Amino acid sequence: MPHKCLFMGTPSLAVSTLKALLDSSHSVLGVVAQPDRPGGRGMKIQSPPTIQLAKKHGLPTFQPENLKDPLFLQTLRTMAPDVIVVAAYGKFIPQVILDLPPKGCINVHPSLLPKYRGAAPINWAIINNDSETGVTTMIVTPKMDAGPLLKQRKTPILPEDTTEILGNRLANIGAELLIETLDELSAGRLHPTPQDESQVILAPPLKKEDGHIDWKKSAPLIIKHIYGMTPWPGAFSFLAGREGVDKIRLKIYSAFRVSGASEVPKPREGTQAVGHKSSNTPGQILNLLPHGIEVASGQGAIILTEVQPEGKRRMDARDFLNGHPVTIGMRFE
């Protein structure tokens, strides 16, 4: 028998799950999301993407500041959902709500639990250079991401996956997995499995300062750092200029590894590459190329291809070089 569902989710990554639920045999009684917040370039008040979608479908919407608000709780009791579906809601859900639906609260979490419990599982899977990740459906409990597992699905992490790219793919996987989970629960074919606490790895929230690149790390790990920090909080470094010239804060969006001398292109006209030496200082600019900036790392070198100076637009490294007096030997810090 199809379930009567209440959906709790806020950002764009939750939209795929809500769409899949709306297209399924299960009914959606309403949508709960975070309150409207300022957003965009003009910082205008905006409704969450899930609320916008819910209104297009004529669904009741709720955006309480406090989930324990008595009127809100009474409304949920009156609606009497069989199950509450949670996808990136953004707050801990109190026990009084967890106890409400007879089939429990089901969370769609973008990692292979118990690995990467927490707010930033997609970022950390990329930053840590994992070869794969996935999505888990689980029963929500008071402890963060610690509830019994229902279903999981894996996906490889591709070389150029940023948090945004991988997040979109996981959102689509999660949407499919949720419907399978609900269908199998309806048929009585699914039984929760406790998580192995000995395998827990946490994925704490990222701060802006976490984006700062450590050039002493190896080239592959720096590239994964860049992609794991994109789009937020953003990987960055400071380019130390000549004496008397302020440092430039540079966001870095894309790069690739230089695996060997045979792969290094010819330098830009009028420049001379430093060359690959074990004595190169991590962060030192080794070469200015037609399509990027070659930088030494703790092991190997990388070529920066897309950057953004503070206060400026995002641009190709070539355009940055055309507008800034960068020279070989300068250092990123």
Describe the protein in words.
The chain is an alpha/beta fold and 333 residues long. The chain has 2 domains: 199 residues, Rossmann fold (3-Layer(aba) Sandwich), CATH 3.40.50.170; 125 residues, Formyl transferase, C-terminal domain (Methionyl-tRNA Fmet Formyltransferase, Chain A, domain 2). Helix content is 23%, strand content 27%. The chain has 8 helices and 18 strands. It has a 7-stranded mixed beta sheet, covered by helices on one side. Strands 12, 13, 14, 15, 16, 17 and 18 form a 7-stranded antiparallel beta sheet that branches. The chain has a two-stranded antiparallel sheet with strand order 3-4. Strand 14 and strand 15 form a beta hairpin. The relative contact order is 0.10. The model has no long low-confidence stretch (mean pLDDT 93).
